[in-house]
Inverse folding.
């Protein structure tokens, strides 16, 4: 097993170490986690590598990335929704190989000025890749965000986009 760890890419090692710190409450809900730059320096890796680790943590619901502010432990991280160490597909409905890919979009809200174009572009890209976009608005309410993540995972989405816009 130690051999498996040694053969993993660095971004997966960083992801695993941060995930373990989150699940063991070394980083608590709402607490800022190290930035791409800080992780790069700590692990002696490029920002691209540390960014990939943070993106993986965000995609699995452990952290929320806030542009210009940093990355923070999610109020209800994946590990608290599901049993620690469970695979991301642990609670997914079984899907056959012939099923189309599902992309989940969880968004605070969207305004006509930017939201329509944003969602239009995402839908067009999902159509071009022969997949479907499933959208859930949360209105910035943490319990709705938690419910949306759980629901998307239960649907068996193949990917998850979480956009959390704060009100001006």
């Amino acid at each position: 097993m130690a051999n498996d760890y040694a053969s993993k890419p660095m971004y997966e090692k960083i992801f695993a170490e941060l995930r373990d710190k989150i699940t063991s409450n070394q980083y608590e809900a709402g607490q800022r986690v190290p930035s791409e730059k800080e992780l790069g320096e700590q692990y002696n890796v490029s920002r691209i590598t540390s960014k990939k680790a943070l993106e993986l943590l965000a995609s699995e619901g452990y952290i929320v990335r806030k542009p210009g502010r940093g990355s923070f432990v999610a109020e209800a991280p994946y590990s608290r929704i599901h049993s620690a160490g469970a695979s991301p597909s642990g609670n997914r409905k079984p899907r056959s190989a012939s099923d189309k890919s599902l992309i989940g979009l969880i968004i605070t809200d969207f305004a006509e000025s930017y939201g329509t174009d944003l969602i239009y572009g995402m839908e067009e890209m999902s159509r071009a890749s022969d997949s479907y976009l499933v959208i859930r608005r949360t209105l910035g309410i943490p319990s709705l965000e938690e419910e949306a993540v759980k629901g998307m995972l239960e649907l068996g989405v193949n990917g998850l986009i979480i956009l959390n816009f704060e009100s001006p």
In short: Strands lie at 32-33, 63-66, 70-73, 101-107, 131-137, 159-163.
